[in-house]
Design goal:
By secondary structure, the protein is an alpha/beta fold. It is built from 14 helices and 20 strands. The strands form 4 sheets. Strands 7, 8, 9, 10, 11, 14, 15, 16 and 18 form a 9-stranded mixed β-sheet that branches.
C-alpha cells in the first residue's frame, strides 16, 4: 500500500485508474473538483445529478466513464451523506475502495475541494486504503488478487505529505489488526499471536516486548488467565509491549496503558455457545489485535509519551480440565471470583491484565474487548460501549472516538448496578443471574482490578466484528489517544 499527496489537485490532469470525488447530500451547486470534471466530461456530472442518479446519499457510488476526456479511465462519485461525521467519511472511502476493486483498479486518486477539512479527508483516505482489504492467505492458488487493491492512492486537497504518510501507516496497522483477528484459530493460537507481536516490536527500536508463559503467570498468581486457559491444550500467554519515545523527543509524564482481550477462540467453555456462528469466535481477540497493531503505529508516529500494552491471550475450551460453573478462583490482585458462567471468560483474563498494567506503571488505562453480546443489543454496531471511572478521561476517550471515526457511546456505571456482581460465596461473581444490564455489570466487574487508576473500558463486540470480517476498530483511537495523553499536563 502506497499513499502519497497528489502533485496536482486538478482531477482532470491526474493519471489514475479511478478518480474518487466525494459528493454531499444534497449535491448543491457544483464547485471545485466536481465542477472541473463536469466541464471536462461535457456536463455529465450535472446530468446524473439532475436525473437523480447521484444524490450524495451515504455510501452511494456512481461510476462515470471518461472516454478519454481526462487521463483517468473512470470517475467515482461517492456519497458522504448529510452532515457526515468522521465515521461516515471513512465509510465513504471504504465504499469507493470496494467499487475500485470490482473495477480492477490498482491506482486511485482521491480529490476533495477546499471545503473538506483535513481530518475528514484523512478519514476518507483511510477508508479508501482499507475498505477493499480481504484475507487471502488461506486460498489455494492465487486467490482473487483483491487483497491490495487499490495499492496506490494519491490524495489531493487539505492534506500534507506528513498526513499522507500517517494515512498509510494507519491503514497498514488497521489491516494488520484485521489479519490477526480473521486468521483461523488453528493458525492464530496464543503462542502464534505472541510471535506476531514480537515481529511488530522488532520493527521499531522504540518498542520492547516480554511474553509471559504459564510459569511466569503462576509466579504472578494470575488466577483469572490461568483458570480460563486450563481447559485448552494451548498454553496461555500474556503479551507485554512497551513503547518509549526516541531520544530527543520530549515525553509527557503520563504512561497510557492499553489492554486488549486476546481470546484466540471462544467456545464458551463448559457453558458452551450455540454452534451457529461459533466460527466467528476466532475474532474474540479483536481487542488484543487492535492493541498490538496500534503499538506498531504508535512507534511509527513517534508519539511523545510512554505506552504500555498488555494482551492476555488464551483459548476458552471445554474439557475435563476446564473451568466449571461454581468454581472459585483468585485473581492477581487477591480478589476471589465465583465463576457462574464460563462464557464470561473475557473479564477474568482482563482482570489480571488490568492489574498487571496498573502495577507496571500505567497511569491511565483503556481496555478494548469483544466482551458482551449485551452491548450489541443495547447500541448495535455503530458505537462501542464506553465505560469509565474518571469523567474527564472518559470524555477525552469519547472525543478521540469522534475525531477518529472509532465512535464510542458513554454508558453508565452507577453504584446501583453493584449488586449484579455480588456472590454468595466469593468477593465477586463473573455473571449475574438477572438478565439485565449485561454490558454494564461486566464493566463494573472490571473496575475492581484497575488499582484506582483512571480507566476506560471499550466493549467493542458490535464494532470490531462485522459478520465474517474484522474491522480493525480501535487502532486509530488508541494511536490518537496516546498522542493526546502525552500532551496532558
Amino acid at each position: 500500500m502506497d499513499v502519497t499527496k497528489s502533485r496536482t489537485a486538478d482531477p482532470t490532469r491526474i493519471r489514475a485508474d479511478v478518480v474518487v470525488i466525494p459528493v454531499a447530500d444534497p449535491p448543491g451547486t457544483l464547485a471545485g473538483p466536481l465542477a472541473a470534471v463536469d466541464t471536462a466530461l461535457g456536463g455529465l456530472v450535472s446530468a446524473v445529478i439532475k436525473d437523480g442518479e447521484v444524490t450524495g446519499k451515504a455510501g452511494q457510488v456512481r461510476v462515470l466513464h471518461s472516454r478519454g476526456d481526462i487521463p483517468a479511465a473512470r470517475v467515482l462519485l461517492v456519497g458522504v451523506g448529510a452532515d457526515p461525521d468522521r465515521a461516515a467519511w471513512s465509510a465513504a472511502g471504504a465504499a469507493a475502495a470496494r467499487a475500485a476493486r470490482d473495477l480492477g483498479a490498482t491506482k486511485a486518486a482521491l480529490v476533495a475541494g477546499d471545503d473538506v477539512s483535513a481530518g475528514d479527508l484523512r478519514a476518507m483516505a483511510e477508508g479508501l486504503a482499507t475498505g477493499a482489504w480481504r484475507l487471502q492467505g488461506f486460498r489455494s492458488g492465487k486467490g482473487d488478487g483483491t487483497q491490495g487493491r487499490p495499492s496506490q492512492i494519491a490524495v489531493a486537497g487539505n492534506i500534507t505529505p506528513k498526513d499522507a504518510a500517517r494515512v498509510q501507516a494507519t491503514a497498514q496497522a488497521i489491516s494488520l489488526a484485521r489479519e490477526l483477528a480473521e486468521t483461523p484459530a488453528n493458525r492464530m493460537t496464543p503462542t502464534i499471536l505472541a510471535k506476531r507481536a514480537e515481529k511488530v516490536a522488532a520493527g521499531s527500536r522504540n518498542l520492547s516486548i516480554e511474553v509471559l508463559g504459564p510459569r511466569e503467570l503462576t509466579r504472578l498468581k494470575a488466577g483469572g488467565l490461568l483458570a480460563v486457559a486450563q481447559g485448552s491444550a494451548e498454553p496461555p500467554r500474556m503479551i507485554v509491549m512497551r513503547y518509549t519515545p526516541p531520544k530527543g523527543v520530549k515525553k509527557g509524564k503520563e504512561v497510557l496503558g492499553l489492554v486488549g482481550k486476546g481470546v484466540t477462540f471462544d467456545s464458551g467453555g463448559i457453558s458452551i455457545k450455540p454452534s451457529a456462528g461459533m466460527e466467528e469466535m476466532k475474532m474474540d481477540m479483536a481487542g488484543g489485535a487492535a492493541v498490538i497493531a496500534a503499538m506498531g503505529l504508535i512507534a511509527e508516529l513517534e508519539v511523545p509519551g510512554e505506552v504500555l500494552a498488555v494482551v492476555p491471550a488464551t483459548e476458552n475450551m471445554p474439557s475435563s480440565t476446564a473451568l466449571k460453573p461454581s468454581d472459585v478462583i483468585t485473581a492477581m490482585n487477591g480478589t476471589t471470583i465465583e465463576v457462574t458462567n464460563t462464557d464470561a471468560e473475557g473479564r477474568l483474563i482482563l482482570a489480571d491484565a488490568l492489574t498487571y498494567a496498573a502495577r507496571k506503571g500505567a497511569t491511565r488505562i483503556v481496555d478494548m474487548a469483544t466482551l458482551t453480546g449485551a452491548i450489541i443489543v443495547a447500541i448495535g454496531d455503530v458505537y462501542a460501549g464506553l465505560f469509565g471511572s474518571d469523567p474527564a478521561f472518559t470524555e477525552l476517550v469519547r472525543q478521540v472516538g469522534d475525531d477518529t471515526g472509532d465512535l464510542c457511546w458513554h454508558m453508565p456505571l452507577h453504584p446501583g448496578y453493584d449488586p449484579l456482581v455480588k456472590s454468595a460465596v466469593a468477593d465477586l461473581s463473573n455473571s449475574a443471574k438477572k438478565r439485565q444490564a449485561g454490558a454494564v455489570y461486566a464493566a463494573r466487574f472490571l473496575r475492581d482490578f484497575t488499582e484506582g487508576k483512571p480507566w476506560c473500558h471499550l466493549d467493542v463486540a458490535g464494532t470490531a466484528m462485522n459478520g465474517d470480517y474484522a474491522t480493525g476498530f480501535g487502532v486509530r483511537l488508541a494511536a490518537e489517544l496516546a498522542e493526546r495523553v502525552a500532551r496532558l499536563k
